[in-house]
Amino acid sequence: METLFQDVRYGLRGLARQPGFAATAILTLALGIGANTAIFTVVSAVLLRPLSYPQPDRIVRAYWQWPDGETPNVTATQYAFWRDNSSSFEDVAAYSSAGAGYNLAGGTEPERVQGLPVSEAFFRVLGVNMALGRAFLADEDRPNGPHVAVITEGLWRAYFAADPELIGKHVQLNGRSCAIVGVLPRDFQFELSAAIFTPLQMRLPDPGDNGHNTDLIARLKPGVTLRQAQAEADGFLQPFRQAFPNQASPRDRGVRLVRLREEVVGDSARVLFLLFGAVGFVLLIACANVANLLLARGCSRNAEMAVRMALGAGRRRLLRQLFTENVLLAVTGGLLGVFIAWQTVPSLLALSPSELPRAAEIKLDARVILFALLVSLVTTLLFGSVPALQTARLDINQALKSSSSRTGPARLGNRMRKLLVISEVSLSLVLLVGAALLVVSFMRLRTVGLGFDPRNLTTMQASLNSQKYKTTASTWELERRVSQRIATIPGVTSVATVPSLPMERGLNNYLTIVGRDPREGMSVECRAVSPDYFRTLGIALLAGRALSESDDRASSPVIVINERLASRFFKDTDPIGRLVVLGAEKCEIVGVVSDIKEMGLDQPVQPTAYMSMPQVSDSGTVATNRWFLASWIVRTQKPLDIASPLTSALRDVDPELPVAKIRSMSQVVSDSITPQRFIMTLMGIFAAIALAFTALGLYGVLSYQVSQRTQDIGVRVALGAGSRDVIRLILLDGIWLTAVGMAIGLTGAFALTRLIESQLYDVRPADPVVFAGTALVLSFVAILASLVPARRALRVDPIVALRCE
């Protein structure tokens, strides 16, 4: 221990004598370790940490498999059949993931909260006990059962001021009196964000309802494997098909069981591992940079080490001293890296898409600190081994006689430094190509034609999922009266309503053409809109007429279709006047409008039918209000902040109805591409750091070469070499190192960019323009990094250089 403390003290004194070297090495490591730790914080919470339920590996989720795909939902009848017949499950539960939320009243003022209807076994399947009160009872989950609710601890504190007497009290939930029976524990998390839970109260079985709108989760019995449960589920398919032929076609493949953790993680695993790999490249480049610094420092310490060895110090003792110094660098860099990660993670979460699972669990914890410590130790080996071993192989006689760069160890050190720079260039180029592809993809996504003009559009949304709006007439009356008040706001030119905004998921229905085989029909997007919808959004009318005020419940049902739907069913004929069956309603096509992006910028245009809101059936309105937010779209003459007048307009008509969201349409469009922006931004940051590290490494190697070649340069200048010759001499070294690294990097990029193919839009992973552009950028940066040492070489005095030996 005394020797160790001595090594530590000497190492600290040595680093203090070279503050520039120490600061550069520590900051380089801190950036590399900090970036890795920040990304690992997300990876650890989302992918590695077990779900916060007892024995989470026993919780499974059900997918229904069609002939050519699958859905993470089942029908109510399928859920009931598997629940009642399976012997592999300890408990089976259902919930409805599609919903417009709840309007909660009973606190200071009405508020819309995210909610989830669940069956009575839901909390038993998850293994969750209430912090206050109880979970649901079987009688409360039956149709027309008591209206009760369970709330989260966060809602209990925020809305009810942590009232300890809340259990049993009644609040207004969607316009109905509802008793609070339980409060969940603080650490409760579920894959869907919800603050309030209500009984599902499904009518089971319901053979007439073959919509896949029910999510099924179950807890396996102790000792039952997923494979055994799957085998049993497969065996139920044929009996189920015989009992309910309209619920499973002859080609349906039945239920597929997956662990809940796999379902929660979803596609985010691929993106997070991609980012983790990219930030690993940054760390490797940082280590190569520090190794270069240590090699240069080691060469300058050859005489010192030779004297130590001549005085009796063994090679093992010197190695221990050098590794102690390296550990000091790594630990200091690691601690600073943890601080950087701690400061960075909140910004990372703010940038992340709302779909990122388990976001509430992302924080620095013991696992993350241990990871940072482990990374610090690994980096010690990565950047410290070669310089330390080079010193251990030092020839005492040569080192004591000369410090020339022509000695064997110095030449070996030069070769190692060049190899490290080549590796930095190649790794940096891979990151630059990946980031450039994502940037090009994002820019092309941003320029995709929407089909409408989002400028000067403001949106307001509210949940009409309540007893007050159970009919089309009541819903339309509210929307019409609110629209009339909004139209009086100064600067407003038009107002329209729609159940869900463009860029957001909406209702779909099955459409067939009257007179054709029903099997030729297809599922289409279905929007119930007000007459001014197309004018407000600026959607072009291509044929026929738009919807009008006369298209009410008393008139024959009509629809307007988009260009994509018209081309799908009426390639060579005029669709105007044709009759279709949309759901259960026979409608006449009266117009064709241009296509707009309904499902997202990166999604193809969907065949869409637009109905007149007053002509929607009551059952259709109830379903729409249950699943989607009612939306008002307001066009103004110029950009205006009308959030307050919009809120007042809604409250004037219904004071108990809270506003869910107010956003500009540009913000709605921007929100739809948050996942792409997230990965592009992070990859761009990593690539920029890598490029800076590479430039620094190239600058360091060339600067060291200039200092070691002082005599050589002096001789050349004395023999008549001009400034251009000296600059060319240094630049050629930098260009050669860059060219070799780029050749390796382009090969690696060509292979590795296939990993991001699924994240790209309208750009190929091997796009030659992107590859050539990034190579030019890296070449330009390399030349700039080489110019400073080259200009320094010009200042070499040949007389001084010839005398120095």
Would you mind describing this structure in some detail?
By secondary structure, the chain is of the alpha+beta class. Strand 20 (579-582) and strand 21 form a beta hairpin. The longest helix has 39 residues, at 408-446. Helix 2 (19-48) crosses helix 11 (315-351), helix 9 (268-300) runs antiparallel to helix 14 (408-446) and helix 15 (472-487) packs across helix 19 (643-653). It is elongated, with a radius of gyration of 34 Å. Residues 403-409 have low confidence and may be disordered. The protein folds into three domains: 2-46 and 267-446 and 675-803, no CATH class; 56-265, no CATH class; 464-657, no CATH class. The strands form four sheets. Strands 4, 5, 6, 7, 8, 9, 10 and 11 form an eight-stranded mixed β-sheet that branches. A six-stranded mixed beta barrel has the order 16-17-22-19-21-20.
